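Need a sequence for this fold. Nothing fancy.
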């Protein structure tokens, strides 16, 4: 087993943990915009959806780096299975356990998205709801275990993430409930093999451009 003790691992763990939290907060916020079909003439719904998908991949990369640097740092003993099995870490057991729960939920949501073409839409939506619980757990994990999350800029960042999550949740359920029901913005990059006719997407884009053109002429 590797045994490393260097401050650079600890610094990397702290930095990637905070970056991961911010990225996943943006992912959930963008996912709320996708589910409520937010988009206009400047930034379309498909663009919002692709940004949501791309940020998810980047966030997963930072999350993996955060976990690996934590495991490699022998200064604290967390255990190699602690990222996926709660309550086995000797270091800050409760906080690390909440982080493990968050990671398990994020992994389930991410895998379901990768297999979306093979999963029933109702099942995919059900699994996707766990992203809210995953992010809430991540925020609590950051506060309980994060060295920088107790005061100063770190605490402000964690509080800002919590505020964004709350605002997104309110927007999802209160501001636009009718448009969110039973709808999902489709990705133009995922039309192949999903049974979606690309002409439908093209006609929708054309209609959107006509509306934008008419509005500019009236001005």
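Here you go.
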């Amino acid at each position: 087993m590797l045994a490393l003790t260097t401050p650079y691992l600890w610094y990397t763990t702290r930095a990637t943990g905070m970056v991961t939290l911010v990225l996943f907060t943006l992912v959930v916020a963008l996912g709320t915009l996708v589910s409520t079909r937010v988009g206009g003439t400047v930034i379309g719904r498909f663009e919002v959806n692709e940004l949501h998908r791309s940020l998810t991949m980047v966030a997963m990369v930072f999350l993996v780096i955060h976990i690996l640097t934590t495991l490699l740092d022998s200064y604290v003993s967390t255990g190699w299975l602690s990222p996926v099995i709660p309550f086995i870490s000797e270091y800050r057991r409760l906080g690390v356990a909440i982080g493990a729960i968050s990671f398990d939920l994020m992994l389930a949501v991410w895998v379901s998205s990768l297999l979306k073409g093979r999963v029933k839409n109702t099942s995919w939506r059900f699994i996707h709801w766990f992203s809210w619980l995953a992010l809430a757990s991540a925020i609590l994990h950051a506060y309980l275990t994060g060295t920088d999350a107790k005061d100063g800029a770190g605490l402000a960042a964690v509080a800002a993430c919590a505020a964004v999550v709350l605002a997104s949740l309110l927007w999802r359920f209160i501001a636009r409930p009718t448009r969110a029901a039973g709808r999902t913005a489709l990705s133009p990059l995922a039309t192949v093999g999903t049974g979606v006719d690309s002409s439908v997407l093209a006609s929708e884009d054309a209609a959107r451009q006509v509306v934008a053109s008419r509005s500019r002429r009236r001005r």
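For context: The first helix runs from residue 7 to 35.
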